[in-house]
Amino acid sequence: MSVNILMPALSPTMEEGTLTKWLVKEGDRIQSGDLIAEIETDKATMEFEAVDEGIIGKILISEGSEGVKVNSPIAVILDEGEELEANEEANQTIPVEPKKQKNASEGVIETKKPSNNVIQTSHTRIFATPLARRLAKEKGVDLDSITGSGPHGRIVKNDILDVNPTNFDDNQESLEGSTLRTGVKQVSSSSIMDLYSDREFKEIPLSSMRRTVATRLTEAKQNVPHFYLRKEIVIDELLRVRARINAHLAEKSNKLSINDFIIKACALALQTVPMANAVWAEDKILQLKSSDIAVAVSVEDGLFTPVIRDADVKSLSNLSKEMKELAEKARSKKLMPNEYQGGSFSISNLGMFGVDNFDAVINPPHGAILAVGRGVKKPVVNENETITVANVMSLTLSADHRVIDGALGAELLQSISKYLGDPVLMLT
After folding, report:
1. What values do phi and psi take at 2, rounded to 5?
2. What are the DSSP calls for 164-232, one per residue?
3. Interior CA angle at 56 toward 52 and 59, to 5°?
4. pLDDT in tens, 300-340
5. Structural contact between residues 389 and 378, judged by C-beta atoms closer than 8 angstroms
6. What angle do CA 191, 210, 179 make, to 5 degrees?
7. d(CA 344, CA 370)
8. How far is CA 236 from the centre of its chain?
């Protein structure tokens, strides 16, 4: 009896994926546990194991197919001697939108040409601005019945408003303003493209990762009540301690980065301020015992946040080694779900890109994220009340006010600053 191989859900957020490569072909015999395909999820490219045994009778989804829905059939397994009947084969085949053709050199969809804002109908050509067309659609106005007052007879906004001014509120914002600024009304892709119909542009398709990042961060910014705490700290002592440690590690080729110290400082601070080591669980708050720190890693088409678990009890050397391994796996999209799920706190460091300071978006359900800027030389007043030049680094804590109150957030940021200002505390 034939059995369908279904598109698996390889991550909790996966709704669809790309079947990047088949590791078997039709006619191959497979056993449970055999690797049969490589699938790109919203997080990584992962190998897929067979659950059933038999013979690959029919591959339903070809390599490179995008947008394959979870639980949709991708292949059929047959028993020994069994054949796939013609009518069964037709019923099994699932149409999948073919992968868009990309420019080989640039990896983008073919350049769009200006449309000159022309609407082509079966009987005439109507010239209208993008805003006029959207207003006409919104108000149910037939463009065929309007004589345009714009250049060369083009229909403009006022032509639409003049049809029935009583149906339009003069105090209402323009269509662009009301939809784009308030977010109450979703703007369609075609509407956005209409705005640039008279300009040349390249359409870049969204990867599964980029689509997931966009969705999660939009939801986070809309639904999580962010507040921000900022602090500048002197890192001269941190730089000196790091240099001394790295001198001893030179032969081991495992030098510590500033980010390694930041991870350790945040992990210890969460133990010092345990109420801040928490996540939002909708109807409750979960306070975690261990310090599991997620660190943002930039990749080609988005970002990953691999999680270093039990960071509070690991040495700086072990943290550094683990972070390098996780970052490499993230860039090659080989992270397993257990390596990027969980955690209560995130770190985003853009200092290496020359950014002085910024506000990071919380990664739900985490209670907070620390944004780290670069170290810059600034005049500061030292303990002797004299002005001197020191290396100063900016820290910005974004906190979920449902989980962390202002005073608690200030206590957490102060604790992080204490460890970074006196890094010897992290070595004891």
Report:
1. -70, 150
2. -GGGS-TTSPPHHHHHHTT-SSPPPHHHHHHHTTTS-B-PPPPPHHHHHHHHHHHHHHHHS-EEEEEEE
3. 115
4. 777 889 999 999 999 999 999 999 999 998 888 888 888 98
5. yes
6. 30
7. 12
8. 34
Q: Are 273 and 412 in contact (CB under 8 A)?
A: yes
Neighbours of 172 (CB within 10 A): 9
Q: 268: closest CA among 416, 417, 423?
A: 416
Rounded CA-CA distance 400/67 in Å is 33
Taking CA atoms, 33 is separated from 37, 50, 353, in Å, by 12, 5, 44
Q: Looking at residue 97, what is its pLDDT?
A: 47
On the question of a cis peptide bond just before residue 365, with omega within 30 degrees of 0, the verdict is yes
CA distance 322 to 309: 10
Catalytic residue among 152, 248, 366, 401: 401
Backbone angles phi, psi at 166, to 5 degrees: -70, -20
What residues form DSSP beta bridges with 285?
A: 280
Q: Which structural domains are found in the chain, ordered by start?
A: 3-92 (2.40.50.100), 118-195 (4.10.320.10), 210-426 (3.30.559.10)
Q: Is 40 exposed, middle or buried (0-12, 13-18, 19+ CB in 10 A)?
A: buried
Q: Which residue has the tokens 């669809």?
A: 16
Spatial distance between the Cα atoms of 134 and 117, rounded to a whole number of angstroms: 12
Burial of residue 44, with CB atoms counted within 10 A of its CB: 0-12 exposed, 13-18 middle, 19 or more buried: buried
Q: Is the pTM of this model over 0.70?
A: no
Q: Which residues touch 292 (CB under 8 Å, ≥6 apart)?
A: 307, 308, 309, 310, 311, 342, 343, 344, 345
Active site residue 123: no
Does the pLDDT of residue 181 top 60, yes or no? no
